[in-house]
Design goal:
Elements: H1 18-45, H2 53-58, H3 76-89, H4 91-111, H5 114-125, E1 131-134, E2 150-154, E3 157-168, E4 175-182, E5 185-192, E6 198-202, E7 214-225, E8 229-234, H6 237-271, E9 273-274, E10 277-278, H7 283-311, H8 317-341, H9 353-363, H10 370-382
Parallel strand pairs: 1-4
Antiparallel strand pairs: 2-3, 3-7, 4-5, 5-8, 6-7, 9-10
């Protein structure tokens, strides 16, 4: 009997359909051939590899689990596998696709008018329009209910004032999905680049997600036509539903980051000789690698079952919170553990674990901190909100 693959100890791949395996394989090849050769340099240079966008679009990765309007119409497990393989390369690359898909195309597809869908979704699927998602504010963080960005009706238009913070893709985005409080509740707007009063600025001096663009958005009497308001989106439930979609992809992506670290640790431990024998001949290293495999296997199975629930229309947002919480914590702990196994050299970009560890410090915070997800699960268990 063949020994299990350490990177897929329970042979989860055998639970995938042929189409799902094909999606995973195509994205894995893209990551191996196009992402990994450049991503350490991009991280060091604080640069998002914008040159990868046309190829990702050609592969149908943007809006891939949406139907129509130039989108691929894949199932949600396939989309999860896309996120897993992209984050095996880098969290910043997966973040770009997550924002384009879950936070920008999804709300247009879900709450937009037919005219809006036809106008923006095909161009976004083709990578000719890039989106960003404006919800988090400088003083808001985990409490979007304190939203200060305001939308005021003025004839056939809306006037937006306020600011958003920690916005992925902000300065390269052609349009922003912006959420603002109004007399009619929280509303969603598509704010297009170049609109007077709208400005995006990069956030610098980051030590995490350096191969990703993070921005601030500012709105100073920005006039947005009624035609750019998402007509079916009303209330805070709409942007929170977008976050559920993004958190779903993150739960899968974290497995990819951890798997990349495991493979690096295995290769290093088999080649590194100390005290006359390879590291992987020692009980200490074998126990540490075994524990990493245990954690990854658990997270991989959780992600797959979450995807099957989502495809069956039975996924609850608290189940997404549990997976995001568990899987990102797992990946961060694994990345730190592998960095230590790699020794002093592990702090350099000659290895991948330190880059994944630094990135995951952001991933464990964005789209809901670990504490927020614990409290979401706790509320579901007890029926009592303790936020």
């Amino acid at each position: 009997m063949r020994s299990p693959d350490p990177a897929d100890f329970y042979d989860v791949r055998s639970l995938l359909s042929d189409d799902e395996q094909e999606v995973q394989d195509s994205v894995a090849r893209f990551v191996d051939e196009q992402v990994l050769p450049i991503i350490s340099d991009c991280f060091e240079e604080d640069r998002f590899p914008l040159e990868l966008v046309p190829q990702m679009a050609e592969m149908g990765l943007f809006g891939c689990n949406l139907d129509g309007y130039g989108c691929a119409g894949l199932n949600n497990v396939s989309y999860g596998l896309v996120c897993q393989e992209l984050e095996r390369g880098d969290s910043g690359v997966r973040s770009f696709v997550s924002v384009q898909n879950s936070l920008c195309m999804y709300p247009i597809h879900r709450w937009g008018s037919e005219e809006q869908k036809k106008r923006w979704l095909p161009e976004m699927a083709a990578g000719r329009l890039i989106g960003c998602f404006g919800l988090t504010e400088p003083d808001g963080g985990s409490d979007p209910g304190t939203m200060r960005t305001r939308a005021r009706r003025d004839g056939d238009d809306w006037i937006l004032n306020g600011a958003k913070m920690w916005i992925t893709n902000g300065t390269i985005a052609d349009l922003a999905i912006v959420w603002a409080a109004s007399d009619d509740g929280v509303l969603g707007f598509v704010v297009e680049k170049g609109t007077p009063g709208y400005e995006a600025r990069d956030i610098r001096r980051k030590m995490s997600l350096r191969a990703s663009i993070t921005s601030e958005l500012f709105f100073d009497d920005v006039r947005v036509p009624e035609a750019n308001r998402l007509p079916e989106a009303r209330g805070l439930a709409a942007p929170l539903a977008c976050l559920t979609q993004a958190r779903y992809g993150i739960a899968w992506g974290a497995v990819g980051a951890a798997t990349a670290c495991l493979e690096e640790a295995r290769e290093f431990a088999s080649a590194r000789v100390l005290f006359g024998r390879p590291l992987d001949h020692t009980q200490t290293i074998q126990r540490r690698l075994a524990d990493i495999v245990r954690r990854i296997t658990t997270a991989r199975l959780m992600a797959l079952q979450l995807g099957r629930l989502k495809d069956a229309g039975r996924m609850h947002f608290a189940q997404v919170s549990l997976a995001k919480w568990n899987n990102v914590r797992m990946a961060l702990d694994v990345a730190r553990e592998v960095r230590d196994i790699l020794g002093g050299g592990g702090i350099t970009l000659d290895h991948h674990a330190i880059r994944h560890a630094l990135n995951l410090e952001s991933v464990i915070t964005y789209e809901g901190t670990e504490t927020i997800h614990e409290l979401i699960v706790g509320r579901t268990i007890t029926g009592v909100a303790a936020f």
